[in-house]
Design a protein that fits this description.
The structure is a homotetramer of 302-residue chains.
Chain A (H helix, E strand, L loop, with lengths): L1 E6 L3 H12 L3 E7 L3 H11 L2 E3 L2 H5 L6 E4 L6 H10 L3 E4 L7 H11 L6 E3 L7 H11 L6 E9 L6 H7 L15 E7 L5 E7 L7 E8 L2 E5 L7 E5 L2 E4 L12 H17 L7 H20 L8
Parallel strand pairs in A: 1-2, 1-4, 2-3, 4-5, 5-6, 7-9
Antiparallel strand pairs in A: 7-10, 8-9, 10-11, 12-13
Chain lengths: 302, 302, 302, 302
């Protein structure tokens, strides 16, 4: 049984706490949050110990690993401290909003041989993972176009946006009010990728993907809580809004993500996505921000 | 150019008039209806001659063929007269509500070698015809279950129901109020067939089919006028109601039906479905009525 | 924590064992199976005690409740013994294949005030339960037609069929080879219900429902493991076969079923569906069998 | 009855010939093509007069209007000559590949008060037109994102590409090999629009649209010739490939387009889209080409 500490008892921290409790080979041992009532509340749900002192986790030799689900500005310090303390780390994205700090962090930890995983949860979603695998298996021939739709059901609370890094995580928050965005990219192999984002969506959490290749197309449609469809005088074959399903959309993905870390710890493997993937996402976000500001296409080498 | 006479300038008569006008090798020459303004109105649309006298059509040697779209009680007399007059006939279903009269009609006309087609329009619907062809081609293996859904968008006018023959055409109208029905049949090969009917449907004209076989299934879903789908706060992926599409659902089927008759006339072939098919439908309707009244399964030999 | 004993370590027993292990307020304490290696295997998965002696469960005062997932012929005896021993019971359907035995069982247990639930898992399926609730809430007006499709992905093993009671559970197994069936029923309110069954289905586990009412329709379509759809030269918008999803289709339903029993036990409520529901299903199955044999509609009063 | 001349007896010319023959108030009088057998073939289909001499149409006072469906390089000269000859004109897009020539053409004809319509057929597609109308009617609130997918089923013949103007009609053909493209635009109101193109598509003619607004979304999916869907061991709910439907996808649009011109001629109205719309499309195509070459966003003022 691997014993975990959790940093952050907010919305995403609770998702991780539930995953840790549900996994047959992990145990949520301690929950840290500077807002102690939050730490107490989450700890109580799963029989863990709450704390307001990060060192209580860092210094406990019985803690094997940590999940960092605290606000973004705390990620680098916690990740560095955990790596030094010999804990395996699952750190929520982004690592930081500043590439220089990310690189400095890497200098600190690269010699420690630490197990570090960055929480790109969508990669563990069964639907998206299946598409990736089938594309890699050649089912649609050469990948030529990739279209991603990601629209949030409603704007996140203002406090969250302030430290989230904006749509082009992590840099453009300071640019102000980007609530609708299209990002166009061209991959090393010439494939075109476009991402359509919106901070709100009247019909729920709109999460789709379309992979178009020389020999066919694979798509991921939205998912609904049940397969009920309604037909009536005002319309037919109506699916429910995706809104109520929002909290559950990525539950399985978070569980698969944790399971991957557990297997890596048990078998001495390197988690994927790792630190370099977290850095690469930041490079792309910086490029998108620069492109938006300058009106020019930007080349990245990562 | 084949010249046609039309009996009946009501709703279904107008559908046939439009098909006759649109076909490149037919011409609507005369329109008969005892309600002369109706005959005038339809004739005027297509440059035909209106008449209130059926003999004007029967006696005109320039008329090659007729479409009988008048009320059911007139079908047998008109069909017999037209066959005697050497006209090819496309007669709307049912031939009559009384099997004895149908058989008597056959005695009258069988020696005349007349070209007689009965208007089972659904057999010419591209979707249903495709399923029939693919099933016959072995695509789903042995056919085991066939489910048909046929729900009308709204009750037909009372006058229409009075002479229509009811849901189990043509006999049960006198039984009164059958507005929702399920018919279960077993075919000679053991295949199960069930038909679900309703005289009204809140969301339009519900016309579906499901053919289930040992190796797969072919289904025919409803069709909508456009492919527009709406997502909003009250539901997602909503198709339009089928109601507005009602008038057009079988337009192509009626045109293909006419085209079949034209080809048979041009090439000296026997139309299919013919008189025997019209009789067989009546036998099944009688059996359904008897089964409903007696609560027993009924065997037919046709 | 409620402690459960499980009778039967076969396919369905394992489903219940997993539900018991996953529920936060239940514990799988003992597993009985006359085939002791099966009992050992399932018990080992969840840290329970295996046994080949049913009395080890019946006589253990620390066991609060049992799940009866053993072969049908053992249900009545186990259900009676458990009720006498003061255990709450969740018994798989059918109670028995013989209505007289079922009624005799009721005579034995009705005075014991036992908590007895019969395992009609589909009633706890989120999709079917939602339709039932929305219909009851008046969303589609008066219910007029109910169509149920239930096709198994592949024939069950011969040994299972021999004691399962056949498609019209529980009586018609002796009739032999009913592998494709349509059942038509009319409810007390005049609503028509038809059930379409097949023992095999080339494209997986086909579980659908259509509730048609005066003001609209609610349908439950099939569900797929992911929302991936494929388009290629041989076809477009292809969903995966339902086969691989078969094991998971009713996982949530079994969990909700158990949760209902737990809540009833904790709060002193009577479970629903109870013994009378199990009896009613048998009455309907007998009627279907009689109808098939006699070719007549059969009236039931239950 | 309006009498039309047709320039061009190729693929698109034949589509217009069929529309002219089917419209109740137009007549195809003459067909011009420098390849005289082509002119003869199309003329023979509809009882028109073939010619290899454009002046035969221009100089015939009995011709009310023309459709210009000849190769792009001939459009400006024909359009100018027809306007001078007092014919109403429906000219296929693009007007020309060179904005200067387009503007010179306008100088020639603007004083003639000619009836000029440019053939943007998609605007008359019932599905796309319905979305435009419903968006304009406020159904989805403020339009925020518009996504257009347009993938051809297979590369057009090389000769066609050479004079077609490329994906960014009309300029980039000389850039060579653009067979996959994404265009991102921002409208005057801040709305984001992206177009995804491909010169080939393994599963047919992929024509979709997604209009996302503050209060909902309207989408146009692909259309299939029939509503048949297949389920089998290798997949479920499979629609046919869109390929065979390609020739018919815009048939109704071309007919509605012609009908619009007819109504404008009959009622003395100005057709929409007109010459200015044809020019605007060229301005956008030039901007896309420039953006691709420079890697910079380009502002247009049209």
């Amino acid at each position: 049984m691997l014993r975990f500490g959790l940093f952050g008892a907010g919305r995403i921290g609770r998702v991780h706490a539930a995953s840790l409790a549900a996994h047959p080979r992990t145990e949520l041992a301690m929950v840290h949050d500077p807002i102690e009532p939050a730490a107490h509340e989450v700890a109580a749900l799963y029989g863990a110990t709450p704390t307001g002192d990060a060192d209580a986790i860092l210094g406990d030799p019985g803690i094997d690993a940590v999940v960092i689900a605290s606000p973004t500005p705390t990620h680098v310090a916690l990740l560095t401290a955990c790596a030094r303390a010999g804990k395996a780390v699952l750190c929520e994205k982004p690592i930081d909003l500043d590439l220089a700090r990310v690189d400095a962090c890497w200098v600190e930890i690269k010699g420690l041989n630490a197990t570090v995983m960055i929480g790109f949860n969508r990669r563990f979603d069964p639907t998206f993972a299946e598409i990736r695998e089938r594309v890699a298996g050649g089912e649609i021939g050469r990948l030529e176009q990739l279209l991603i739709t990601s629209r949030d059901p409603a704007p996140a609370p203002a406090a969250y946006i302030a430290s989230s890094g904006g749509l082009f995580e992590p840099y453009i928050a300071e640019a102000g009010d980007v609530d609708s965005a299209v990002v166009s990219m061209r991959g090393a192999g010439g494939e075109l990728c476009q991402i359509t984002n919106s901070r709100r969506c009247a019909f729920g959490y709109d999460q789709r993907l379309e992979a178009f290749g020389a020999e066919g197309m694979l798509t991921a449609g939205n998912q609904t809580a049940t397969s009920v469809r309604r037909s009536g005088a005002s319309g037919t074959e109506t699916a429910p809004p995706y809104l109520n399903f929002f909290l559950d959309r990525y539950t399985l993905a978070y569980r698969a993500e944790l399971d991957h870390l557990v297997i890596c710890m048990e078998q001495g493997l390197t988690p994927n996505p790792g630190f370099a993937d977290g850095r690469a996402a930041l490079v792309l976000a910086d490029a998108a921000t620069e492109s938006m500001k300058t009106g020019r296409a930007v080349r990245t080498d990562s």
